[in-house]
Amino acid sequence: QSALTQPPSASGSPGQSVTISCTGTSRDVGGYNYVSWYQQHPGKAPKLMISEVSKRPSGVPDRFSGSKSGNTASLTVSGLQAEDEADYYCSSYGGSNNLLFGGGTKLTVL
Amino acid sequence: QLQLQESGPGLVKPSETLSLTCTVSGDSISRSNSYWGWIRQPPGKGLEWIGAFDYSGRTYYNPSLKSRLIISVDSSRNQFSLKLSSVTAADTAVYYCARELVPANNFDYWGQGTLVTVSS
Fold first, then answer.
1. Out of A98, A102, A103, whose CB is closest to B62?
2. Cα–Cα distance measured from residue B120 to residue A74, given in angstroms and rounded to the nearest whole number
3. Over the stretch B7-52, which tens digit does the pLDDT of each residue have?
4. Among A79, A84, A57, B46, which Cα is nearest to A49's?
5. Using CB atoms, which residue from B60, B104, B113 is nearest to A52?
6. Can you tell me the mean pLDDT for A16-44?
7. Is B94:B113 a contact under the CB 8 Å cutoff?
8. If pLDDT is split at 50, 70 and 90, which confidence band does A1 have?
9. In chain B, which among 91-110 make CB contacts under 8 A with chain A?
10. Are B41 and B97 a contacting pair, CB within 8 Å?
11. Are A101 and A90 within 8 A, CB to CB?
12. How many Cβ pairs closer than 8 A exist between chain A and B?
């Protein structure tokens, strides 16, 4: 199975909202509510930001939210802050005990 | 506090076997609601799931790596290992070990990662 599709880049000004998409198929994103989002700063390990489409782990600001419609999941960052500038990756269960990642989106805070 | 630490050679020759170990502290790798897995990231590129195992020792592999991959477990040492054979330059990456929560299939704790370069 191919990786999930994300836009390579996204940007927004401080205080604005930005949405990053993650497109798969009915065999992965569309078939299961097991979509996660990770934030990765340069040189650091990824950090879980959203699990099971829309659940925020403890400690993740409520500025981060997730949703899904059909085969596309989305991560929205509201009230953008400078520290939100990072790479963001989606992942989804792909069936048959397989896990897929998206190609990543570089978020720039202007 | 759960911590994971990868260890192993940082340089491997082409056609040889890449071997890494992940040492876990602060949790037991025998927990029934967790998997433990490996993820890699080539320099400047995205994440790729390598594989994982569950509390019973059953393993799950990325189909694209399955023919070259072995993930093994040493519960007595709370460690698990990765062996990837017949490596090429395309296997050069930062390798992470992580805890995977099930059934959500997300990774909530990660090691710091270790860079493995495949080069002669």
1. A98
2. 42
3. 999 999 999 999 999 999 998 888 777 899 999 999 999 999 999 9
4. A57
5. B104
6. 97
7. yes
8. low
9. 96, 101, 103-108, 110
10. no
11. yes
12. 62
